[in-house]
Amino acid sequence: MKRLYQAFSSMSEAWQAEPNALQEVEGIGGQTLDTIRQAQQEVEPVALLADHEHHNLNFWTPSDREYPQLLWEIPDPPPLLYYRGHLTQWNERNTVAIVGTRRATPYGRRWTKKIVTALAERGFTIISGMAEGIDGEAHKACLEVGGQTVAVVGTGVDQVYPYKHKDLYKQILDTGLVVSEYRQGTPPDKKHFPARNRIIAGMSRVTLVMEAPDRSGALITAYQANEYGRDVYALPNSLEVHEAKGCLKILGKGAQAILGVDELLEALGMLPNLDTPMPAIAISQLPPLQQNVLQAIGFGDPVGLDWIVEQVKSPSGEVLGALTQLELAGAIAPYPGMRYQRLA
Asked: Whose CA is closest to 212, among 258, 246, 255, 256?
């Protein structure tokens, strides 16, 4: 869906595109093309949209200004993001995901409340999954100090899961937001929750893992956040605590340690401001190799390192150095799998 949007500038143009133009988009093969062509013949878009809006009052598409910018940056953003609540906007620079185990220890709950309280009081928006344990503790602590919180759920936004959080759900709706990629009425399904985790990671500048066993959905969120190029922090704990072994695992793989409230706030204060425009780049003033790399990347879909090396005919090490400089200058954006896209 994202590649279609990028290729045709709008989904309306993509819907009306000819088969040969659609097949030029990565991921659309013969079977998918046949399905699209059948839908083009059978579906009336205006009627479909009217019926969808009738059953789903509030949702954003990537063409809506309210659609989270950070979420659109990930490789697989949801084409529809349903929402319910009263949080009309938030500062995406200050979005922090809080994730962890459903079986939180007193230590994990205590530190979650302490950190969330400090973040919420300083204007950070807390994003979590409204699950039992750490998630619920994070939402509650944020609401207690009048902070902004967003719950990303694996059901429709009109469903309460777990049901024991029905009061918390109502409180979030009063001042915050419940979002989902699943239409209203969608019941809980265990397959939905791993996919839900990518939205939590994608909407957040930073992900904090407060407590997680060795096999945990919180670790999936952390790995996805790392893949998206977002900072990941973990709360250290004892080697003897089963609920914390996942935190120690990701600390060993490069996550940053939460060493205290003040230290964390100082680190988060160093995040670059999303609203600060990058300075204009004079292409002609760049070194020749960087100019060649930019030309090879172009303004289309992200391209891989091997392809760039082949185009510029330079050693891969030199090309990687040029890519790093161009990324620091804001001229290109990195994608998973060592792929790169040129920015306008």
From this structure: 246
Tokens standing for 31? 């079977």
Residue 282 has pLDDT above 70, yes or no: no
Q: Taken in order 323, 324, 326, 331, is the CA torsion positive or negative?
A: positive
Ramachandran category for residue 313: left, alpha or beta (phi over 0 → left; psi -120 to 50 → alpha): left
pLDDT of residue 83: 96
Query: DSSP H helical segments within the chain, as ranges?
Result: 2-8, 11-15, 19-22, 30-42, 45-55, 69-72, 106-121, 134-144, 166-175, 192-202, 217-227, 245-252, 261-268, 288-297, 305-312, 316-328
Pairwise CA distance, residues 265 & 267, whole Å: 5
Write the pLDDT tens digit of every residue in 63-120: 787 889 899 889 899 999 999 998 767 778 899 999 999 999 999 999 999 999 999 9
Which amino acid does the sequence have at 279?
P
How is the beta sheet containing 95-100 ordered, strand by strand?
A: 59-60, 81-85, 177-180, 149-152, 125-128, 95-100, 206-211, 231-234, 256-257
Its pTM stands at 0.76
Would you tell me the crossing angle of helices 192-202 and 217-227 to the nearest 10 degrees? 40
